[in-house]
Amino acid sequence: MGFTNPVYDGSFADPAIIAVGNGFYAFATNGPLGNVQTLKSADLVAWEQVGDALPSLPDWSSPGRVWAPEVSVHGPDRYVMYYTTRGTASGRQCIGVAVASEATGPYVDKSSEPLICQADEGGSIDASPFQDSTGRRWLYWKNDGNAIGVDTWIYASELSADGLSLTGPVHRLIKQDLPWEGALVEAPYMVERSGVFHLFYSANAFDKAAYAVGHARCSSPIGPCTKSDDPILSSSPDAAGPGHNMVIHKDNRDWFVYHAWNRTQVGTDPKGRTMWLSELTWPADTPVVQPPLRLNPLTP
Question: Bridge-partner residues for 23, per DSSP?
Answer without folding.
Answer: 20
